[in-house]
């Protein structure tokens, strides 16, 4: 299909200093858990985005010197010439598809602590390392500043030799020396680099000039700048100073990449902010400079993108998450296939890989991080290897993704769902407070399979083992999901909570099914991801008195990984939910529960009419066990496989991955004892 002319503006070339981007789609720097540790994977992931039509592809943060070693985080590294080949390989791949390659150079100052290099971290002043290690950074003297400028310049020259077209400087107080020097709060120096704004800006200006002078004839010099940095102590003055910096340096960088303070706001989870939520902060920047401006906002709608350009907010549509969820987003718009965009749901599962330091995963895109090690392409899947008909039982995220991918391969697929709705847990969970966007996991897949004549979907079809044997599909896939326990067993309690028979007990599924919950309510959360917190929020919004009890030291503690934890905590406090952290549930009784502090064992009693248990789930695998007993071959069944939560309950991302994996591997020869992917092995000297 030809592209919609309304979107032509997105495909205009835009000059950036001495180089030109072929369109306005700009993959801004983002971490990915691969970087220097899994370079083949990182290269293949970036290459895929170039193939998908992004005009600019940037690296993640790349540290430039051992005194700014950001280990143990897995990011980019450019300490000396031996680091060039990884980037040269990435850039060849990016250039092959006509895209520009950018590198984000950074010295993180006192942020990370030099855990690998064991150098003494250097910083704007004497200051403890932010990550909490019992280490301090030392204040930089003039010689250190001269050295730092030289390292940055050398890194820029190396980056050019590696083939980069854009060289980034990174200014973010708390995450980079340049930002720390700018910050009135952090910069307490009394020399020419501290005090007045002009002095605090000196280092940034110098490094910008150094970079221009070193590589600016052939490379664009980009500045990533946090517009509400907290440059000064009182909120009102923050933006004034930020604006003053942009005014003073307006024409110095070739590109302004602007974003906002705190990662949790910059990568705003969809539960707490909509698409385009940065506009109110960054909207003024373009009025102060003639240089192109890029910004992010979890943009997935081409109409919103066009509006950003037409209204003069941005020149480039910046994206990290939308480019992860759909590396082919630009191509799809270009080819008039916007409906095929696999929209990011804003769950931030991708972000977790930065903390866990393993290759990135994404709820919507099961192939991300697998491009090299499994040779998975997000848009291409091998054609079917047989005419086997496949029955998939259950249309949650695992069943839907399995049907979509097998359907793409050309298999004849029958998808049977017990309920009258598709989506399984995603259908239920996306109706909870703030989680509507998560429904995209279902919507994308349903929309795709509806167009496939070879995929038939049956609602209201709860299948029994007898049904399945009777149908005799050669391939049977069980994606029947999982159910929450109602006995309190989980991470903290290995045996059932005594007294549950005396109180009204509910699981999340009961609440999804519309159970009437009388207050006071106790939500006991031993799951630690979002479910306990979001149910407490939901029940409180419905008017109940709610206490959330958890053995963890924070509410929804694992959501720190998805940048949601502090938002959740704030919301629960605002709503008046009482929170009891570090408490287990010792017993339940009529109208009350007893809880005990995990450290001291001290007990207290809480009034409770309804107890909601969010601890762990058990697979719905009765069907599997019934079929296991049957003579499958006699029924013509060649394979019976469990996928998703039916095999082992996990995240929605894991269910999607499981469905996708089965679809790819169904007809592959079994590789029982082999490592199921290519590994990145270190070569010994
Ligand atoms: P997953 O996350 O693994 O995809 P879900 O729990 O989201 O799992 O989805 C499982 C789906 O399977 C639910 O929609 C459920 O209604 C459906 N289901 C469970 N048992 C059967 C069955 N016997 N026949 C048809 N559908 C079933
Ligand atoms: Fe978007 Fe979630 Fe995928 Fe990240 S993991 S790109 S937030 S869908």
Structure overview:
It is built from 22 helices and 29 strands. The mean pLDDT is 96. The strands form seven sheets. Strands 3-4-6-10-11-12-13-14 form an eight-stranded parallel barrel, surrounded by five helices. A five-stranded parallel β-sheet has the order 17-16-15-18-29, sandwiched between helices. The protein has a five-stranded parallel β-sheet with strand order 20-27-21-22-23. It folds into three domains: 5-356, TIM Barrel, CATH 3.20.20.70; 390-481 and 620-665, NAD(P)-binding Rossmann-like Domain (Rossmann fold, 3-Layer(aba) Sandwich); 485-618, FAD/NAD(P)-binding domain (3-Layer(bba) Sandwich). It has 685 residues and is of the alpha/beta class. The longest helix is centred in the N-terminal third of the chain and has 20 residues, at 142-161. It is 30% helix and 18% strand. The structure holds adenosine-5'-diphosphate and iron/sulfur cluster. Iron/sulfur cluster is lined by residues 321, 324-325, 344-350, 362-364.
Supply database-style keywords.
single chain; 685 residues; alpha/beta; Rossmann fold; FAD/NAD(P)-binding domain; 3 domains; eight-stranded parallel β-barrel; 22 helices; 18% strand; globular; binds adenosine-5'-diphosphate; binds iron/sulfur cluster; flavoprotein; FMN; NADH:flavin_oxidoreductase; oxidoreductase
Q: Gist?
A:
It comes from Dongia sedimenti. This protein has 685 residues and is an alpha/beta fold. 30% of the residues lie in helices and 18% in strands.
Per-chain topology:
Elements lengths: L13 E3 L2 E3 L3 E3 L11 H13 L4 E8 L12 E2 L6 H13 L3 E7 L15 E2 L3 E2 L7 E4 L2 H20 L4 E6 L5 H6 L14 H4 L1 H14 L4 E7 L8 H15 L5 E5 L3 H4 L12 H4 L10 E3 L6 H9 L5 E4 L1 H5 L3 H6 L14 H8 L33 E4 L3 H13 L3 E4 L8 H5 L10 H11 L4 E4 L6 H7 L3 E4 L3 E3 L19 E3 L1 H5 L8 E5 L4 H12 L4 E4 L15 H11 L2 E3 L2 E7 L2 E6 L5 E5 L2 E5 L2 E3 L2 H8 L9 E4 L9 H14 L20
Parallel strand pairs: 3-4, 3-14, 4-5, 4-6, 6-10, 7-9, 10-11, 11-12, 12-13, 13-14, 15-16, 15-18, 16-17, 18-29, 20-27, 21-22, 21-27, 22-23
Antiparallel strand pairs: 1-2, 8-9, 19-28, 24-25, 25-26
Helix pairs in contact: 1-2, 3-6, 14-16, 14-22, 17-21, 19-20
């Amino acid at each position: 299909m030809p592209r919609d002319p309304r979107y032509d503006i997105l495909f205009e070339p835009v000059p950036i200093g001495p180089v030109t981007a072929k369109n306005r789609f700009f993959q801004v720097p983002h971490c990915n858990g691969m970087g220097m540790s899994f370079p083949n994977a990182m290269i293949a992931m970036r290459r895929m985005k170039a193939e998908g039509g992004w005009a600019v592809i940037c690296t993640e943060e790349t540290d430039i010197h051992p005194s700014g070693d950001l280990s143990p985080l897995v990011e980019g590294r450019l300490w000396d010439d031996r680091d060039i080949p990884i980037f040269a390989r990435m850039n060849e791949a990016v250039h092959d598809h006509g895209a520009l390659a950018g590198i984000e150079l950074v010295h993180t100052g006192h942020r990370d602590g030099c855990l690998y290099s064991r150098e003494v971290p250097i910083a704007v002043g004497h200051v403890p390392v932010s990550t909490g290690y019992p280490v301090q950074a030392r204040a930089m003297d003039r010689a250190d500043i001269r050295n730092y400028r030289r390292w940055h310049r050398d890194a820029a020259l190396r980056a050019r030799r590696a083939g980069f077209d854009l060289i980034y400087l990174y200014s973010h107080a708390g995450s980079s020396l340049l930002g720390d020097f700018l910050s009135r709060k952090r910069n307490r120096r009394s020399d020419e680099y501290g005090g007045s704004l002009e002095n605090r800006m000196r280092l940034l200006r110098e490094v910008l000039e150094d970079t221009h002078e070193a590589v600016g004839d052939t490379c664009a010099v980009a500045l990533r700048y946090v517009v509400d940095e907290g440059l000064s102590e009182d909120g009102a003055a923050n933006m004034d100073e930020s604006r003053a910096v942009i005014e003073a340096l307006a024409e110095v960088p070739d590109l302004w990449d602007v974003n906002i303070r705190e990662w949790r706001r910059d990568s705003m989870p969809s539960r707490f902010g909509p698409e385009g939520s940065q506009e109110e902060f960054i909207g003024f920047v373009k009025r102060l400079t003639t240089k192109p401006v890029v910004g992010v906002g979890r943009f997935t709608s081409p109409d919103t993108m066009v509006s950003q350009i037409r209204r003069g907010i941005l020149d480039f549509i910046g994206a990290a998450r939308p480019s992860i969820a759909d590396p082919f987003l630009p191509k799809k718009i270009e080819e008039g296939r916007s409906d095929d965009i696999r929209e990011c749901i804003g769950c931030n599962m991708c972000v977790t890989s930065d903390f866990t330091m393993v290759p990135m995963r994404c709820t919507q895109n099961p192939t991300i991080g697998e491009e090299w090690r499994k040779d998975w392409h997000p848009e291409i899947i091998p054609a079917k290897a047989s005419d086997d008909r496949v029955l998939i039982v259950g249309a949650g995220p695992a069943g839907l993704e399995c049907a979509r991918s097998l359907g793409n391969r050309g298999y004849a697929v029958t998808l049977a769902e017990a309920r009258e709705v598709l989506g399984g847990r995603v259908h239920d969970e996306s109706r909870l407070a703030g989680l509507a966007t998560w429904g995209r996991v279902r919507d994308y897949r349903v929309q795709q399979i509806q167009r496939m004549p070879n995929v038939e979907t049956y609602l209201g079809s709860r299948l029994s083992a007898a049904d399945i044997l009777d149908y005799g599909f050669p391939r049977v896939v069980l994606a029947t999901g999982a159910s929450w326990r109602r006995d309190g067993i989980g991470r903290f309690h290995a045996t059932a909570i005594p007294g549950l028979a005396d109180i009204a007990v509910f699981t999340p599924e009961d609440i999804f099914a519309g159970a009437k919950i009388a207050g006071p309510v106790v939500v006991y959360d031993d799951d630690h991801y979002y479910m306990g917190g979001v149910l407490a929020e939901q029940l409180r919004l419905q008017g109940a008195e709610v206490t959330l009890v958890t053995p963890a030291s924070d509410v929804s503690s694992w959501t720190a990984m998805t940048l949601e934890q502090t938002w959740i905590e704030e919301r629960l406090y605002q709503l008046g939910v009482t929170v009891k952290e570090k408490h287990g549930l010792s017993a339940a009784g009529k109208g009350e529960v007893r809880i005990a502090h995990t450290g001291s064992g001290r007990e207290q009693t809480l009034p409770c009419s309804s107890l909601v248990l969010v601890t762990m789930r058990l697979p719905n695998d009765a069907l599997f066990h019934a079929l296991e007993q049957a003579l499958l071959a006699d029924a013509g069944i060649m394979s019976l496989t469990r996928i998703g939560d039916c095999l082992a309950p996990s995240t929605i991302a894991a269910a999607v991955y499981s469905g996708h994996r089965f679809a790819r591997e169904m007809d592959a020869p079994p590789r029982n004892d082999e490592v199921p992917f290519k590994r990145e092995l270190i070569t010994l000297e």
